[in-house]
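Re-running the complex after MR caught last week's input typo. The corrected sequence lines follow. Everything else is unchanged.
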Amino acid sequence: MVSFYINGKQASVNAEPATPLLWAIREHLKLTGTKFGCGAGLCGACTVHVNGKAVKSCLTPLSSIAGKLVNTIEGLSEDSSHPLQKAWVAEQVVQCGYCQSGQIMKAAELLKQNPNPSRDQIVAHMNGNICRCGTYTRIIAAIQRAAREG
Amino acid sequence: MTRIENDASKITRREFLASTTGLTFAMAFAPAGMFLMSEAKAKAAGYEIGAWVRIEPDNTVTILTPGAEMGQGSMTGVPVALAEELDADWDKVVLEWAPADPKTYGYTRKRGERISQSMAIVGSRAVMMYYEDMREAGAQVRKVLLQAAAKKWNVAPAELRTEPNVVVHPASGRRLTYGQIATFAEVPAEMPAVSTAEYKDKSQFRLIGKPIPRRDIPEKVNGTAKYSIDVQLPGMVYASTVHGPVQLAEPESWNDDTVRKMKGVIDIVKLEHGVAVIADTFEHVLAARKVLAVSWAAGATAEGYDSEQALETAYPEIAVDQNANNTTVGEAGDVDAAFANATKVYKADFRSDYGYHAQMEPLNAVARFNAAGDQVEIWEGTQAPGRSRQRIAQALGFGLSQVIHHQHYMGGGFGRRSINDYTIEAALIARALKRPVKMIWTREEDLAYGMFRPQALQCLEAALDGDGKLSGWRHCVVGDGGNLLYGGIKLNKYYDVPNQFIEQRGTSHGIRLKHWRAVAHPFNLFAIEGLMDEMAEKEGMDPFEFRRQRVAMTPKAREVFDAVEKMSDWPTKRPAGRALGLSVSERSGSLGAGVVEISLDQQTGKIRVHKVWVAIDGGTIVQPEMARHNVESGIIYGLSSVLKERATMKDGKVRQSNFHDYEVLRMSEAPEEIHVEFLDRLTKPTGLGEIGNPFITAAVANAFHALTGKRLYHMPFTPQRVIQALKA
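Corrected-run output:
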């Protein structure tokens, strides 16, 4: 049993300490907005925040998050009102959508660290997140819009 | 306002039809094709029926959408055409998935004498195939509403107009919303005929050609969009299949006792080409997968296969072997005479490697049987719901009615999700277990047991006559996969070469192959347009001018070339270290021409594409924003395969296993600028999901030549191959 906070609420997951956080979130807690893409930390589809830092949940053992604050796409805002979510809609970024929770969570970390990132800074920060539909240029535009419009 | 329900609580079709208020327009299929009719008449005639459009008293218009959604937007794009002719208020339109029932909801395909219905969203077909049916259905529903209002007001229908969701009588100023009409109108036994002359003129369009936000986006930015991998059922267990390292090998035995003792393991099920482990949680499945050691029967066709060796040595032999298994794909004029009379002959060989779909959502499905075991419910994301349902029924020895199918969003398709081998596995496992099962392939499984775009060798020869005009063309593609190799090999949609012979020479390796975005067009156009560029160079001509003066171009081709020349400002010199390359693009009725601007890091051998321009004739563009997304996506997908992606097999085994060794394009490698223009057309829409892809290979190769004077003949253009080419 490992206890932590998820999207502001206390949660306990009855699983082995080595269980990847990804499966605890998706299948134990049924928060399925966080996606399984590669299971090896290579694609970023499973990106969530642990104590405010973006991590790849497929490589994060449950034991390492005991007592910590985990935030997923479901906890980013209650009503899709986070500036990045609004910008993602305005720029019509999404295609298949499967990687986008991870993209948005990764971008949210960036804007927290750097409210006005340059294009190069955006690319450097986001390069670990694969989008197979190739929405990269729109993701950049949406992050810039979110930075601009707040 | 999107109501795409993905769980078992979804209202059933019967409830939808049996609802007592509002107007339901049924869709029926008869030998003449699909059409709208009253439910009563369809039932009397014994037709398979389903609801297609429903208007509620509260003015909501529900349209069933058959546009399987894998990111291309057709879930929204297909019903837009219906809503347009219905003059529906798009804000009041609710979309629901059409059931997996091609007889009712499929588009009609005519191949010779054979007429068939299909819901397969493949080959960029969604909007292209459904467009006319959708417009007709929308126009018919509108006419019924107009007639009902006319009767109520006792005026002639011709005196009436519509505004979005409202019928108006301008002379008296009276108005009735569609919802109000639905409270008293009846669907006539015979739907009114509508001629295309009654369709809206382009100038009256409120939706077609206008930017309509995609319906799926809001739920895809907050995590609520449901893919089949997200389905949760009470009592559900988890499974994953391990397939042979040599594809299609059959399992013989495994360490059953050891794995069964592992924590959470419930069962192990033998499948034809794999062994499935089932456990209470997915982490326990993953742990069991690692311990499971299967011994595989010898004798799989792929055993010992070495793909690099085949491409380098076996394929060139097949290309000249007169006894090789061959198919003539195209033939015109007297090609031998053209080459005998040629003043110049150009030859080149091109190669391309296997490609993997690498859709972001690993293949998965959920299956649940009823207690009696004579009915299965399936949750999956599929490009071909009808075919999928049929194949599941077949695999289980069921009739169609015993398979209940729930469609989901797909985390990418790209051709992989039009065949459902993974769903059949889920169904077989669920039957063996007698419990609901979520079956997920790991990424490693998804890749190793992939269905690949085949590798190919292309041998081309071109003859120029006494006037220097292209008079003869020979193109032979060698490889495994039949039509997966020669789609897009014919150049008659853009170049008219009077004498030509095009063939495919086949072999077989036992590797699973499949349609990949734009199928064979990317590598065929690489060869065709690579040789075209080489001829232009050797003839000392600009690539545009060579095509215009020496090749008989179709009028459509001339227009897209003219357009992209202007868009890219082709004649203007680029900064030092940058160069441009050109290629035609062709797929699913659409034609395009594209230019790329590249640079090269001479030390690392890394090519960087900075800018892309593409001009496309795609007929009427129903949704310009979505169309642009599709083309951008095709460009990135294509570029990924041009610069990075390669699957290889050694000792019969796929050598790559995940994104570290099967690399796909990342943000830092994406072009900074992509410019897409659609030619203004009134013709029927043609496919746009794949037109962004085929031109990019040759365009990059040709730009590389412009930059370095060297040519690239083997795709992908990996740094290693680039450095080799620079030294050549």
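None of the earlier attempt is carried over here. The longest strand of chain B covers residues 590-601. The mean pLDDT of chain B is 92.
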